[in-house]
Amino acid sequence: MTGAMLLERVTPACDLEPRSVARVAGRIVAVQVEPADAAPTVVARIDDGTGFVHAVFMGRREVPGIEPGRTVDVEGRVCETTAEPRIYNPRYELR
């Protein structure tokens, strides 16, 4: 866990609004790590049963406990995107 969770209410991924602060709980279904010649980034795709959100950890090649199959809560500001929502450098809590 990184830091204390600020929000108690969990928002379904299908209801995420750009520029809002939200907490999403779900299962990590995929993890992507950028190649060595790119900026260090880990992207975890989280499925909460209503949709997906990407948790993007900048400046890292690995994040302890972030692996497919784990259940996690992530919290942060939702970025506006035309694809699936993203939360950059979220607070996270492993379940």
Polypeptide structure, described:
This protein has 95 residues and is mainly β. It has a single domain (13-94), classed as OB fold (Dihydrolipoamide Acetyltransferase, E2P) (Beta Barrel). The protein has strands at 21-33, 41-47, 52-58, 71-79, 86-88, 91-94. The chain has a five-stranded mixed beta barrel with strand order 1-2-3-5-4. It is globular and about 35 Å long. The model has no long low-confidence stretch (mean pLDDT 90). This is OB-fold nucleic acid binding domain-containing protein. It comes from Demequina capsici.
Give keywords.
95 residues, mainly beta, OB fold (Dihydrolipoamide Acetyltransferase, E2P), OB-fold nucleic acid binding domain-containing protein
Q: What is the total number of structural domains?
A: 1
**What's the total helix number?**
0
What are the low-pLDDT stretches, counting only 5+ consecutive residues below 50?
none
Shape: globular
Order of helices and strands: EEEEEE
Helix content: under 10%
Which radius of gyration do the C-alpha atoms yield? 12 Å
Average the pLDDT over all residues and give the rounded result.
Answer: 90
- In total, the number of strands is 6
Can you tell me the CATH architecture? Beta Barrel
End-to-end Cα distance, whole Å, is 10 Å
The major β-sheet equals: 5 strands, mixed, barrel
The first-level CATH class is given as Mainly Beta
Strand content: over 45%
- For the largest beta sheet, what order do the strands appear in spatially? 1-2-3-5-4
What is the CATH superfamily label?
Nucleic acid-binding proteins
Q: Provide the CATH topology.
A: OB fold (Dihydrolipoamide Acetyltransferase, E2P)
Protein name: OB-fold nucleic acid binding domain-containing protein
Organism: Demequina capsici
